[in-house]
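From the shared-data thread, chain only:
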Amino acid sequence: MRDYPKLAADILEAVGGEENIIGVSRCATRLRLVLKRSNTKAKEKVTSLPGVITVVENSGQFQVVIGQHVGEVYDALTSLVNVELADEQSDNKGTVVNRVIATMSAVFAPFVYILAAAGILQGVLILINLFFETFAETGTYEVFSFISWAPFTFLPIFIAITASKHFKTNTYIAVACCAALVSPTWAEIAGRITAGETITFLGIGLSETVYTSSVLPPLFLVWILSYLEKFLNKRVNEVVKPLFVPFLCMLIMVPLTILIIGPVTTIGANGIANGYNFLADNVPAVAGAIIGGFWQVLVIFGVHWGITPMVLANFDMYGRDSFQAYQTIAVIAQVGAVLGVILKAKSQETRKVGVSAGVTGLFGITEPAIYGVTLRFKKPFLFGCISGAAGAIVASFFNPYYFAYAGLPGPLTIVNGIDADYPLSVWGIIIGVAIAVILPVILIQIFGFGEDTAKKTGDESLEKERKQSGGSQQTNEAKNNEETVCAPLRGKVVPLSAVPDKVFNSGAMGNGAAIEPADNKLYAPFDGTIVMLAPTKHAVGMRSESGVELLVHIGLDTVHLNGSPFVLNVKEGEQFKKGDVLLTFDKEAIEQHGLKTITPVIVTNTNAYQQIIIETVEETEALQPLFTVVK
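Structure, as tokens:
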């Protein structure tokens, strides 16, 4: 997808235009919209657009998952929408939890790749020091080291920039206030207080809290600043406003932060971090199981940004964090699930999507893997979660930690777990990662990867692939984990999606096809057993010897005919052979009642099969191959 302006315009049209948007933001992979009204059709339309992976509605947001090109789409969309007006309308939208999550996403997403790049540089330095012990004593190492730490040291300034845009306050005032928090002079003052000296401001004692690498203090500073600036802008004379509003904001906000906001929010963040650490230190297996098993569930709903302050608080307090160690295992488990699908899938298209999604997973970005493969087939996502939990539990016995922050934990950041004081840490992570990669592959090879919920039966690429492989020549016998279901009627083959009945065309009953009958006989499509006969005789349920469960529903709404046009030749529980006439019906009588004779032929246990491949025919004779089920 390269025409991002067109995609943005299509999304805007699908969600109801500019007048329906009351909030616009983005994170690393998602376009996040707050809508006045949302409906199922909008979700379906946007999901079907080229370049859109999926749509998630959560936390009061209409989240369009796009991937690494979300920035281009966001820029194109904001050029079409009055963002400032929209955001003003969305100030009080949603619950407190939803607004907190939205804020974390808006603040951290724009610069997460900067932190990720710095974390990778730290990992590279760790590797070099392993092989060249004297490298740490060189000026080259010192330069690269301070470069890698700079984004974390001055993190409050990054937060000032993004938070000021989110809270709609003056960016330069926000940066000036947050720059004061990371001033070397304040660090020196805090150091003197820590050493025992008493220093006061207007008679109030100052705390020793420092704000380099901090998250909540600058975030709350900018939030409160947004209200203060609005208050002052309404009351300060226009002539002196450009000078005195910044003057008063700095004069008020910096002291307020170092006296109250900073110490209080730091205690809060540290308290949450210590709560997690208590769990991780006392029952590490439980902590590992929770994070390894459920982290990707948070990613699905886009609420994973909320954990960032806690993780950064751990690095600030202790210089290490176990959460990201377990998080890495959870991420890699989804990559392992994708690998399992690639190895198991027969569809060339499925393998192609899997390779693409797996590559992005190597960089710690799992949305393409989740929405493109694992969640699409359901089973792989579950296997990935189970494997992530298993790998994290095993790793927990080795006290795994990250010693450098990873913006996007994944395979490239495993080296962040190396530290001379914790030699077993990285080995625990490696073992956990190995389990996370291998276990889902094994589970998928044994249990399969489920039904493709994104690709409907009759998809042209699957039909083409099946045709090229000579699938239409299969007989009724199960061959190579496949079974051919023959047409039970003679007539015109119609896609299930074209059946004018929501129960059938939605796929709720299962996948299959439909036939416009040309005669009045229903034949057995395989050897099997009758498992259900409708009291009104219009529907027959049957099971093949290998387990394919088939429903044949003669006509639509024919239940109202009370069985008058139908004559049954079988009973429930009775066995039959392929070609037996199961029932006959009066086609003309059905039509005289104004009812359609189109007959859905559906595999009701669709979930037991990987694929159901429709034959590419417009007309069929009875007992000719209709579709193939693949186990």
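Residues 88-92, 455-479 have pLDDT under 50 and may be disordered.
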